[in-house]
Amino acid sequence: MTSSSLIALDADGVLLDYNLAYASAWEQVFGERPVLRRPDAYWAMDRWGVASLQEEALGRFRASLDAQFWSSIPAIAGALHACEQLCSAGYELVCVSAIKPQFAEARQANLRRLGFPIARVIATSGRAAPGLSPKAQVLAQLQPLAFVDDFLPYFEGVGARIHKALVLREQGGSPNAGPGLKRIDSTHANLAGFARWWLNPYQEEQT
Questions:
Q1: Beta pairing class for 146-149 and 120-123
Q2: Which of 107, 110, 109, 116 has its CA nearest to residue 82?
Q3: Domain residues of the chain, as ranges?
Q4: What residues have CB less than 8 Å from 56, skipping those under 6 apart?
Q5: Minimal CA–CA distance to 23: which of 15, 31, 13?
Q6: What tens digit of pLDDT does each residue of 80-119 get?
Q7: What pLDDT score was predicted for residue 181?
Q8: Strand order in the sheet with 146-149
Q9: Weakly modelled stretches of the chain, pLDDT under 70
Q10: Domain spanning 6-16+75-199: CATH 3.40.50.1000
């Protein structure tokens, strides 16, 4: 059975603005801040219109995505207040993030520094069985009331008793389309929208 008070939240795209942090990392490595090309783009590379990196340049950029990077990503507007509202209503929050385990502590420090009332970060990076997202096994153990993510494939294999809430952020090139949407219980523009709807579903229509 589901936990009576637990809500599982994704990090990048739900709590934290990875796309903005991506631009800062690019500037740090290559000395020039990329220009915003497509504000509606889902993926960071498309959003900033940066070149596809190869070999040495790619290695340098990947190396910059270290513990310091993962501990300094800015919050998405309204996400902190949404979490505070959920906690005030009696819910416990846990972050379930597809991040390498060695960066889980940095992610926790990031959330703590920003003031998020989230005591646990669970890293789920790695391969999963066919038909299961990397997060499905952890969610099966946690059995939260709800799971909020902005990446449709991460809902694959998540149990029917868990409310599946998809954040439909920037739609340009978004993977959040197709038959997988049938598995989703509710959709929202952002975490703030989910919190308002979850706490009073009659006040806000789903997106």
A1: unpaired
A2: 116
A3: 6-16+75-199, 18-70
A4: none
A5: 31
A6: 999 999 999 999 999 999 999 999 999 999 999 999 999 9
A7: 94
A8: 120-123, 92-97, 6-9, 146-149, 163-167, 186-188
A9: 1-3, 126-131, 201-207
A10: yes
